[in-house]
Specification:
Blueprint lengths: L15 H26 L3 H9 L4 H26 L6 H7 L5 H4 L2 H9 L7 H28 L7
């Protein structure tokens, strides 16, 4: 209507990765904000008051009060994000991608879905093996992250 050519953003494979990254970040900002604000609001204000009386500035309060007190929440969120790393936001990708952006928009979980239930032909053996490897890798990463968190002297998820 403004004299420009019509341009369908969702069918342009060149812009698909940027669109997906932006939408994924936007999807997770709200939940992360709530968790981190709850962790910060759970810190006793008397700690900040006593630090201010002792002469601590904002940077010192951040490094010695805020970060150590919110570290358990940060580590739990890290473990949860690493757990969802191998899922690759299946629902979001599956609902947004189409045949035009299949070359850049296909992730492992949607590929497994396509070869097992969707499209032409079914290959249950390959999709089952891929799922087993994918979930085993996810388990290894989560257990490794949990060991890392325990080394930081922070309680993990187990």
């Amino acid at each position: 209507s403004m004299g420009q050519e019509k341009w369908s953003v969702y069918t342009d494979a060149q812009y698909w990765p940027a669109i997906f990254i932006f939408l994924s970040a936007w999807k997770h900002v709200g939940y992360g904000s709530i968790v981190y604000l709850a962790a910060i609001s759970g810190i006793d204000p008397a700690l900040y008051e006593s630090a201010a009386i002792d002469g601590a500035n904002r940077k010192d309060m951040l490094l010695h009060i805020t970060i150590p007190r919110t570290l358990p929440s940060v580590m739990i969120m890290l473990i949860l994000q690493l757990a969802s790393l191998f899922i690759s936001n299946f629902d979001q990708v599956y609902n947004l991608y189409n045949n035009y952006v299949l070359s850049t928009g296909d992730v492992l979980s949607t590929y497994i879905y396509r070869i097992s239930l969707g499209g032409s032909g079914t290959n249950f053996e390959l999709s089952t093996a891929m799922n087993l490897v994918l979930n085993t890798m996810g388990l290894i990463v989560v257990l490794g992250a949990n060991k890392f968190v325990e080394k930081l002297d922070v309680q993990g998820i187990f």
